[in-house]
Amino acid sequence: xxxxxxxxxxxxxxxxxxxxxxxxxxxxxxxxxxxxxxxxxxxxxxxxxxxxxxxxxxxxxxxxxxxxxxxxxxxxxxxxxxxxxxxxxxxxxxxxxxxxxxxxxxxxxxxxxxxxxxxxxxxxxxxxxxxxxxxxxxxxxxxxxxxxxxxxxxxxxxxxxxxxxxxxxxxxxxxxxx
Length: 178
Fold this sequence. Notes:
Blueprint: H1 3-8, E1 12-15, E2 27-28, E3 34-35, H2 40-51, E4 55-59, H3 65-73, E5 78-80, H4 86-96, H5 101-104, E6 107-110, H6 117-120, E7 125-128, H7 134-139, E8 142-143, H8 152-163
Parallel strand pairs: 1-4, 1-6, 4-5, 6-7, 7-8
Antiparallel strand pairs: 2-3
């Protein structure tokens, strides 16, 4: 099967945060709080996916009120943070949403490191950023040319939306020109 055929069948995106929506670095403040940097183009793509009717889910080991608020502002409602075992939360998500093994074929998961491994082995389209751990790259069906926090989420969302006619409609090049 051509890789683009897998992208066309996606109905749900699941993303890790640290190393996917961020560059995996954190700034540690004196009071122990952590600061993360997120890509605004990834954010726009997430918002577009939600508005186009795709489900966007976050499963992350990190716990940050700022990250949660940002994702909620983009329209994401399924946010699981502070997760120790991602496969357990993934299975709970499937159960709560009455999703079957067949439905799993339409799920794209993007992760970057070992905590993502078990979930990635289950979904229809396991993906990762270019700078993911080699164990994750080895099981990914698609490796983005973008690093974590540098547009890798937009890369996969844009492919799915374009293949389904839900991305920006290109204007007619002859309209508006005199």
